[in-house]
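Bit of a strange request maybe. I'm writing a small parser for structure token strings and I need a real example to test against, not something I typed by hand. Could someone generate the tokens for this chain?
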Amino acid sequence: MQVDPNSFTPLYRQVADLLRAQIEEGTLRPGDKLKNEDALAEEFGTGKATVRQALRLLRTEGLIDTENRRGSTVRQPPELTVVSLEKPARITARMPTAKERMTLNLPEGEPVLVVTYSDGRAEVLARSAIDAGPASGDQEA
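Reply from user aminoacidic:
Good idea to test on real output. This should exercise your parser:
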């Protein structure tokens, strides 16, 4: 696979797109180790700096984990959680700040959930800290 140096899309994004497609198609599966930077640079016809940028992008998207001296592996996709809220509370997802990531002990690329209550209070939670289920007063079918 080669990238197109004449494209308006930056090379690192092209490399990230190609790797992302392999992950989404199942060619690269959760737990699979990616080739090292030298091998990926040769495979895509780019420099190592381009590969590093592509891997950084995939980490921030939560698709891979990278450990020093061990390389990058495909991350297990997070389980979907159903959360019930009493109206007019609202829940949104976003990427955490560096401080939130440290406080909540989150890996890079892991989103947080922000619960905003009708009185304007907002609570930032790690996805794993929320218990799924019906809101109080709701009855299960």
